[in-house]
Design goal:
The structure is a single chain. 76% of the residues lie in helices and 0% in strands. By secondary structure, the chain is mostly helical. The chain has one domain: Ferritin (Up-down Bundle), CATH 1.20.1260.10.
Length: 191
């Protein structure tokens, strides 16, 4: 588990539980976008064969999460929403450098940090839910997110020197902490 530098404010869980339908719609969008991120690595870096199979599997798993959350939405009479910018991801993107290799390293580490925050927050949701199917869903998704952030760090270390990865990861974690502290608390996975 990546050691995030700041924990999620407990008020976030309260906001989510107070407006769970809004959270579910946002969660579905986040899963769909995560699947697209996995495929973007495949499209952008077809020559990095170490990435291809893991990213296809990642995209598939995130798409399955999207489908599972969509089924929950449909059962609750809710609809998917039009895409809206994710302020958290947008703020993180400001640290991504240009240049093919540096961009790849940064995108892998950004994905690791995003997945780590998702892991933490889905775990908080699971803990707040009563025992049952919904709690089991969020426990399962939490376990997946834990695997995912580890995957992105491992892939970064396969593509780049481990000391370079560790140094840049520290920068990413510090930046992510600043971003989390700057965003309002909403019933959304990120903001």
């Amino acid at each position: 588990m990546l050691a995030l530098l700041v924990p999620t404010d407990p008020r976030w869980t309260k906001a989510v539980m107070a407006d769970f339908d809004t959270f579910l719609v946002d969660h579905a969008a986040a899963e769909r976008k995560a699947s697209a991120v996995g495929m973007s690595f495949v499209v952008r870096y077809p020559d990095r064969t170490a990435l291809l199979d893991p990213m296809i599997e990642f995209a598939r798993e995130e798409l399955e999460h999207f489908h599972r959350v969509y089924r929950v939405l449909a059962a609750r009479g809710l609809s998917l929403a039009a895409d809206t910018p994710d302020r958290y991801v947008g703020a993180l993107m400001k640290l991504v450098r240009t240049g093919r290799d540096t961009r790849l390293l940064d995108r892998l580490l950004m994905a690791a940090v995003v997945e780590a925050r998702g892991c933490e927050r889905f775990g908080l949701v699971a803990e707040a839910l009563p025992p049952g199917e919904m709690r089991a869903l969020y426990e399962d998704i939490t376990r997946s997110e834990a695997r995912h952030h580890g995957l992105f760090v491992r892939l970064a270390k396969e593509c780049f020197a481990p000391d370079v990865v560790e140094s840049r990861l520290r920068e990413w974690l510090a930046h992510e902490a600043e971003v989390v502290a700057s965003l309002p608390i909403t019933a959304a996975l990120h903001a």
